[in-house]
Design goal:
Blueprint (H helix, E strand, L loop, with lengths): L2 H20 L10 E2 L18 E5 L7 E8 L2 E5 L6 H10 L5 E5 L10 E4 L31 E4 L13 E2 L10 E4 L3 H4 L6 E8 L2 E5 L6 H10 L4 E3 L3 H16 L7 H8 L5 E6 L13 E3 L15 E5 L20 E4 L6 E8 L2 E5 L6 H10 L5 E5 L11 E3 L31 E4 L10 E5 L5 E9 L5 E6 L6 H11 L3 E6 L13 E3 L32 E5 L5 E3 L1 H7 L1 E6 L4 H5 L16 E6 L2 E5 L15 E3 L4 E3 L5 E6 L5 E7 L8 E2 L21 E5 L7 E3 L6 E9 L14 E8 L4 E8 L5 H8 L11
Parallel strand pairs: 4-6, 11-13, 18-20, 24-26
Antiparallel strand pairs: 1-9, 2-3, 2-8, 3-4, 3-7, 5-7, 9-10, 10-11, 10-15, 12-15, 13-14, 16-17, 17-18, 17-21, 19-21, 22-23, 23-24, 23-27, 25-27, 28-31, 29-30, 30-38, 31-37, 32-33, 34-35, 34-39, 36-37, 39-40, 40-41
């Protein structure tokens, strides 16, 4: 035998050794590309002919909470709260298409229902597929009144494949597709995440089964790739896999060849491994379960005649290509973006028109349109099409309404839309999405310990020594801030950062004591701490475990935005006498040269304007410090809840700061709110300070420190910049919209602002033009 033939046989033998283990479908490898479990709650066959319906009802409530009502024997009724538990709530939330429950309510919190009380003393274990399979007193047997109606609070995340409907019918069907995974065959691919190529497998009973590839199309591949977080499909070398299969069959058929028992067993029972033998997707479905499917019959003589397990290959988006080995990067849209989401691949949908970003109205917003957005941004199909500003409200124009994508469009701009009018939509109807993203395993290298809940604790990261031995270690708390905490919470899958803590002595419950990471500095948008800057060699002055970094995470966060147009409308100059500025000087609201002035004679020239700060997020904005630590300022007669709430800066053409001001939050309160929203915060009588979601705080132009001291400024063209929450003291869902900029012209006597805009409101091209703007040649604004 010559050397080349020997090498070929050796190569095939190695590949064969990698191919055969995949055939043992009952084992689950640790790194497998899997869509999140779509545990559609479908109960076992019931003697009742109709399907059980469940809905949330009552008031006041959000979309994911409410009084539980069941439709039984043609009538809606409620559940009594006797013996009610979180396990019952889990079953009901699953039934409604939510991933889990976060709580439950008693005593008709959402109001009293009407009609029957269908169930009482319900006792679920939590894993039942429908409430009807839990123990109870039986249908209609209750000693309760509607004052005891039970309610649930579901986690605000939908199970993939569910439509966003309030009423979910439980269907009796054992042949269903819930979970799908991509199982790699080649050994090298098993070590890299995300997994982009492999055998398609579906969860079946207690194991996994394949799909027959006879009649398999690119449209089927597109649907599966979308489920797994990939925007596009690629051609797969089927001949390669056929040769492997043929070679495996030949090896097993030769009695003298030493073949593993698992490989022989696979070929002997091959027909039993195919659960599906026909899939006919159109390519627009968001889940394989939505495609026409034909399931293998147990008594079939041949489950996949002339075929083999379906193998696919997917194209990852740019964010997930670092380990894929692909050279050609996928181009993504530059005129569509997601804002305000806690996780990668979710957020409020914003589109760019005439260099200005705007939002999309949620009328007729559905999974088809949402999937077009997800795919054009480099993600998979949509898990959820969110309505009602569920990712916070946008600012500025609303460009689209009644978007009607078919699912095959390359961009949302290619879809039919309805012209927008002010009567049609408000920002309370901004559309949002949650996209399928590839499994990267990032959460396996981080954990938090010692906290009172799973949302807080000391951060511990998994590290490997040169020998490959893995262990957990701490992060140095020095300079650890909200931005780093944002990344840690995102990596943990726990939402937004509420706080980043530099000391965690009160969470000292772990035996992990070594500092393994220091100098962590994040931008805030990274997917994992390993993508941030950090010291190559650990350097931590306070290396004791009590000084390790910690986080408090939250599923919601505030989001502050300044009303740019009001700043432009209210700007003016005032020459204010020094004898009226003693309190302002005490609070450091004047430029440094004021200290050399001949007090109380003379004056300071002040650039004044009003600031209206909106909370467009999903949680109230509240000071980091509790009222016990607020500082009393006797001169002005008020408390400061934050030392620096806002920076006011005047910049020259080079971006150098030539004048500055700052505003302490002496009174964070709800000045006014949107229709239907009540004020919660009022500063009077040492009241609670904060800004409610949907409300705004107004700092009028005529109050102290609402200015920039421009006494020393020469006439010219400048950029005026306002930054809210500049030190990131309070967590927000989005810090990119905290800055506002204006072009400014000062002639020594008067001042003009124009082109005022939020920091992320314009396209990159328009922002570059703004920065290079030479200023007005006259007082006319064109």
């Amino acid at each position: 035998m010559d050397k080349s033939r020997c090498k070929q046989q050796l190569a095939f033998s190695l590949l064969l050794g990698l191919w055969l283990p995949y055939c043992l479908t009952q084992t689950t490898p640790s790194n497998t590309a899997t869509s999140k479990p779509t545990t559609t709650p479908t109960p076992s066959p019931s003697p009742r002919p109709e399907r059980l319906k469940v809905r949330l009802s009552g008031y006041p409530r959000k979309h994911n909470e409410g009084r539980i009502e069941l439709f039984y024997k043609g009538e809606w009724g409620t559940i009594c709260d006797d013996d009610f538990t979180i396990a019952n709530a889990h079953v009901l939330c699953h039934h409604l298409g939510f991933v889990s429950a976060t709580g439950w309510t008693h005593s008709a919190k959402y109001g009293k229902g009407q009609g029957k009380i269908w169930l009482d003393n319900v006792q679920c274990h939590g894993g039942e597929k429908s409430i009807e399979f839990c123990k109870s007193r039986g249908w209609g047997n209750s000693d309760c009144t509607h004052d005891e109606d039970a309610g649930v609070v579901c986690k605000d995340e939908r199970i993939p494949g569910f439509v966003d409907s309030n009423v979910i019918e439980a269907q009796v069907d054992e042949n269903k597709v819930e979970e799908v995974r991509l199982r790699p065959v080649v050994g090298v691919a098993k070590k890299k995440l995300p997994i982009t190529e492999g055998v398609v497998e579906v969860k079946y009973k207690d194991g996994w089964a394949q799909i027959c590839d006879v009649g398999w199309t690119a449209k089927n591949t597109r649907v599966v790739c979308g489920m797994l977080g990939f925007p596009h499909e690629r051609k797969v070398n089927k001949n390669f896999y056929r040769r492997l299969k043929k070679r495996a069959a030949e090896k097993v058929s030769r009695p003298k060849v030493n073949v593993s028992a698992g490989g022989r067993l696979y070929l002997e029972r091959q027909k039993n491994n195919f659960h599906l033998h026909s899939v006919a997707c159109t390519g627009t479905e968001v889940h394989l379960a939505a495609c026409p499917l034909e399931f293998n019959k147990p008594n079939a003589t041949s489950s996949c005649a002339g075929g083999m397990p379906a193998v696919i290959s997917c194209m990852p988006g740019p964010l997930f290509m670092q380990n894929s080995g692909l050279k050609k990067k996928l181009k993504i849209s530059t005129n569509v973006r997601l804002k305000g989401g806690a996780k990668v691949g979710e957020g409020r949908v914003e589109v760019l028109k005439d260099n200005v970003w705007g939002t999309v109205c949620d009328d007729r917003w559905n999974l088809l349109s949402a999937s077009v957005v997800c795919r054009e941004l480099g993600f998979g199909s949509a898990k959820e099409a969110l309505t009602g500003a569920r990712m916070g409200q946008g600012m500025g124009p609303i460009y689209m309404n009644e978007v009607k994508c078919l699912g095959q469009e390359r961009s949302i701009w290619d879809c039919p839309v309805k012209n927008i009018t002010s009567e049609n939509c408000q920002h309370s109807e901004d559309a949002a999405v949650r996209c399928n993203v590839p499994y990267m395993g990032l959460e396996t290298s981080i954990r938090i310990t010692g906290g009172r809940t799973r949302y807080e604790g000391r951060v511990e990261v998994l590290t490997s020594d040169p020998n490959g031995t893995q262990s957990w270690g701490l992060i140095c708390g020095e300079n650890w801030s909200t931005k780093e905490a944002m990344v840690a919470c995102r990596q943990l899958g726990l939402g937004y950062a509420n706080q980043g803590l530099q000391e965690t002595w009160y969470w000292d419950s772990s035996n992990v004591t070594d500092m393994v990471m220091s100098g962590v500095k994040c931008m805030g948008n990274e997917m994992a701490l390993s993508q941030c800057q950090y010291h190559k060699t650990v350097s931590c002055q306070r290396a004791a475990a009590k000084f390790a970094a910690g986080v408090i995470c939250s599923e919601t966060a505030s989001d502050l935005v300044l009303n740019a147009s009001l700043v432009e409308q209210t700007v003016y100059i005032e020459d204010r006498p020094l004898h009226m500025l003693y309190c302002a000087a005490e609070e450091d609201c004047l430029s440094k040269s004021a200290a050399k002035a001949n007090w109380p004679y003379g004056h300071r020239r002040l650039l004044r304007f009003s600031s209206q700060i909106h909370n467009i997020g999903r949680a109230d904005f509240k000071p980091k410090a509790g009222r016990h630590s607020w500082v009393w300022h006797a001169c002005h007669g008020h408390y400061h809840s934050m030392d620096i709430f806002t920076h006011y800066d005047l910049l020259n053409a080079n971006g150098t700061k030539v004048a500055e001001g700052h505003k302490a939050s002496f009174c964070l309160e709800d000045t006014d709110c949107q229709e239907g929203i009540s004020k919660r915060y009022e500063c009077a009588n040492f009241g609670d300070q904060g800004i409610t979601v949907g409300c705004w705080d107004l700092y009028r132009h005529d109050i102290d420190c609402q200015w920039i001291d421009i006494t020393d400024i020469k006439p010219g063209n400048y950029i005026m910049q306002v930054v809210i929450n500049p030190n990131y003291e309070v967590a927000e869902s989005d810090f990119t919209n905290n800055a506002m900029k204006c072009n400014c012209k000062y002639d020594g006597h008067r001042i003009w602002f124009h082109n005022c805009h939020i920091g992320d409101a314009l396209s990159e091209e328009a922002e570059r033009r703004f920065e290079k703007y030479p200023g007005q040649l006259n007082n006319k604004i064109s």
